[in-house]
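Sequence, structure tokens passed on for absentees:
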Amino acid sequence: MTAGNGGPYDEVVGTAMTTVTEAEVLRDALGLLKDREQVAKRLLDSSAKHSFDPDSELDWDAPYEDGKWFWPPELVSLYDTPLWKRMGEEQRILLSQHEAAALASLGIWFEIILMQLLVRHIYDKAATSAHVRYALTEIEDECRHSKMFARLIAHGDTPWYPVSRAHQNLGRVFKTISTTPGSFTATLLGEEVLDWMQRLTFPDERVQPLVRGVTRIHVVEEARHVRYAREELRRQMLTAPRWSQEFTRITSGEFARVFSVAFVNPEVYTNVGLDKREAVAQVRASGHRREVMQTGAKRLTDFLDDIGVLRGMGRRLWRSSGLLA
């Protein structure tokens, strides 16, 4: 059997060369990853220095101030639509209050899912590692955030806005079947878009002081969560089996579609005296709203593209979600 004639020998050698090349690429890529334990130790140090107790940190007894927004007007879903232009200032501010409550409700739903995913992630890992100890610290953070969001909703005259029953059930399925990289992709999706909006909210003096305080705490603590999730997802997309990587691409794209729809609960329009169908139609047609959502997601989608999540069917699903330009 001789080389160079296109026979079985060449096929074996060609396969071996491909395998070696892929192994070398993987080894080089892994060399660029930051040490998991060192990252976790730095995050634990940061948590010890920059964590907050919302119950004592914020003034929950102060009344809301007349004429102040509950969310920057440019981030309210109907901003710059024909319906918005017909609304008076008082109704616009009321809509911002209900949308803030709806986002807080969505945040609680998402963080409860996230806490379960984190528990699954560390289930079979050494509890003495810094990586696991930080995951437990993050779960503690998320418990406080959920209680803080719930208290914010209860503080105003707004209802609790649960996600639809279909999305509730999809959440149950996702947290049951999700792979580790899929879990961290969903984590970043839920954290980074809202984080971008909150970074615009807490310094905005047009917004209610209590809302600014809530968003400030969330931004500071979520920065650590994003770092943890990004580092782990980059590692997982290099080391996970190919089937898991592809499954992550598809499930993350579908979760992006769910998230983009659930981001504003249509009941907010009814509760502020607007026609729900007309409002939903105008939000969907709004170029400003589309730009807001894509801008809020851009840092995340650039990262996901860089590590290989936005490929094939997954990329098409992300595009259909409206979050990917």
The chain has 14 helices and no strands. The two ends are 54 Å apart (CA to CA).
